[in-house]
Design a protein that fits this description.
The protein is 33% helix and 11% strand. By secondary structure, it is an alpha+beta fold. The mean pLDDT is 92.
Length: 204
């Protein structure tokens, strides 16, 4: 699902669109059979990797192996550095059909996820999902009072992933912040992802 844990509106327990129990474990043979049944065996998957970073090269090799075993035709495209990778990732005409990106909301609400990432005019809609029905639902939910929006974002999350599956959620990140027992006023700034330094003080 799209909404990360802890965000208002996330469905609990999470829905399971692809039927793997939410484990993240793949089944290459089943995937290959599904592609064969759909007449889509050896579908090309083109993606970028930074050839200047040995870790990215190793990651590319793992992705190629996994996609090949699942019946796809992986076609990695090398770029000279991370800046070029960023540039091509944001180019809708780049010769790739799989983009690897992360997203961090500016505030804890579905409006900071669905409008920029999944609406037709979203500034960060790198999956290029363009569905008038989804656009309309986003506008409808955003027009509601903030305290009533949360469950509707969860329903929209399920509809997008069940009907279109435009993204493959890879992982969710979280902040772990340690502080001493005499540090008071310490909180996590949910917008900046850092301690609230302006409210902190030391207990004598």
């Amino acid at each position: 699902m799209i909404l990360p844990p802890g965000l208002p509106g996330r469905i609990d327990p999470p829905f399971d669109v692809i039927g793997n129990g939410g484990t993240g474990n793949g089944d290459p043979e089943k995937a290959k059979q599904m592609l064969e049944d759909a007449g889509a065996l050896n579908t090309p998957v083109t993606f970028l990797f930074d050839a200047s970073d040995p870790t990215k090269v190793d990651g590319k090799n793992i992705i190629v192996k996994a996609l090949s075993e699942a019946g796809f035709d992986p076609q990695p495209r090398a770029v000279p550095n991370a800046d070029k990778e960023d540039e091509l990732t944001q180019d809708p005409n780049a010769p790739i059909n799989l983009r690897y990106l992360g997203w961090c909301s500016d505030w804890p609400s579905g409006s900071s996820w669905f409008s920029p990432v999944f609406s037709s005019e979203g500034s960060s809609n790198y999956s290029y999902l363009s569905v008038p029905r989804i656009d309309q639902k986003i506008r409808q939910i955003e027009s509601m009072p903030a305290e009533k929006q949360a469950p509707h974002w969860g329903d929209l999350d399920k509809e997008i992933m069940s009907s279109y599956y435009p993204v493959i959620p890879d992982y969710y990140t979280a902040n772990a912040m340690l502080h001493g027992s005499k540090i008071m006023g310490f909180n996590n700034d949910e917008v900046r992802g850092m301690p609230t330094f302006a409210t902190m003080w030391v207990k004598q």
